[in-house]
Each structure stands twice: as structure tokens, then as C-alpha cells.
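C-alpha cells incoming
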């Protein structure tokens, strides 16, 4: 049990180094917000954002190929980092009762990702409505730029009770300038 937790910690630490995420737990660097508005000088409209990832050993099969179930987890990392780069912190939104759930997922595998390869995941917010956002993903190998995987997700905004709700303007405005 301890070995597994230590391994998970080390793998998480490695991933954070590769993606440029802060290594220590932190509270939001951005201004706090309410469900009515967000006032942050660091808030900026972004349509797309890229992160670096490296396939960890436990994410692969015996031949060193990344298992197909890992890609959706990387997609979630991409969405989270797109929001963070736009000046939004998902943890703060959860505290305000704003949650996003995946309602649709598509993945197309072109080439296998392999253990310890440096990869780049580009996440793009492609469409939005009053209660959903659609994102597309392109995973490429940094060494040669080869396209490994493409995908898309649709996430719906829900409240604490799990019912659909309108996406607050302070969320959709900084991500791709989506307007409802």
C-alpha cells in the first residue's frame, strides 16, 4: 500500500514537472470570485493551450505502449490547464457550486504513445452553449511532431445537486470568448 502511494506521488511529481504545473499545493493565485463575477487582472481569453506530458510506466502495457484508457485522463488535464491559463481555478469554481461533467467523449488513435516519450497535448475550446462546452484535443510526439491521438469532449455545467445549470459568464468569457 505504501509503495503504491509513493509510486503515485512520484508519477504525479514527474507529470507536474513535465507540464509546468506548480509542485506544491497552493490556493488560487488569482483573485477570488463569486458566482456573479470574477475580477482578476490575470484573466485572459484563451481558445487553446498546450501542455507537456510524459507517459509513465504504470500507464503502459508490457510492450511499453500507453493503454487506451489513459488518453481521457490526459484530456482532463488539458481542460483543467486551459482553464487555469485563462485565469480560472477549478477548485475555486467547485467551492462556488459550479461543476463540469463529461457527457460525450470521442478518441481516435493514430499512432501509439510509448513509455517516457515527451508529448504535447493541445486543448482547444471549439464551441460553447448556455450549459455546455466542447473541447478538441491533439496529442503529438515532441521529437518529430507526429500526430498520435485526436479527440473531443463535451462537458456540461451542473450545480451541487447535479442538475444542469447555465455556465456563468465569468467562466465562458475567458475561455475562447464564448458568448451565450
Amino acid at each position: 500500500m505504501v509503495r503504491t502511494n509513493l509510486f503515485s506521488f512520484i508519477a504525479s511529481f514527474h507529470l507536474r514537472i513535465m507540464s509546468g504545473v506548480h509542485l506544491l499545493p497552493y490556493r488560487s493565485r488569482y483573485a477570488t470570485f463569486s458566482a456573479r463575477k470574477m475580477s482578476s487582472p490575470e484573466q485572459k481569453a484563451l481558445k487553446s493551450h498546450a501542455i507537456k506530458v510524459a507517459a509513465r510506466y504504470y500507464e503502459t502495457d508490457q510492450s511499453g505502449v500507453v493503454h487506451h484508457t489513459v488518453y481521457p485522463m490526459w484530456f482532463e488535464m488539458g481542460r483543467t490547464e486551459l482553464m487555469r491559463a485563462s485565469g480560472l481555478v477549478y477548485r475555486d469554481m467547485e467551492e462556488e457550486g459550479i461543476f463540469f461533467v463529461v457527457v460525450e467523449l470521442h478518441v481516435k488513435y493514430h499512432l501509439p504513445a510509448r513509455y517516457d516519450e515527451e508529448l504535447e497535448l493541445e486543448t482547444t475550446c471549439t464551441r460553447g452553449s448556455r450549459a455546455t462546452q466542447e473541447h478538441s484535443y491533439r496529442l503529438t510526439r515532441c521529437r518529430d511532431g507526429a500526430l498520435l491521438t485526436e479527440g473531443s469532449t463535451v462537458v456540461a455545467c451542473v450545480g451541487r445537486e447535479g442538475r444542469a445549470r447555465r455556465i456563468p459568464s465569468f467562466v465562458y468569457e475567458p475561455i475562447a470568448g464564448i458568448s451565450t
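note: The chain has one domain: 2-21+45-172.
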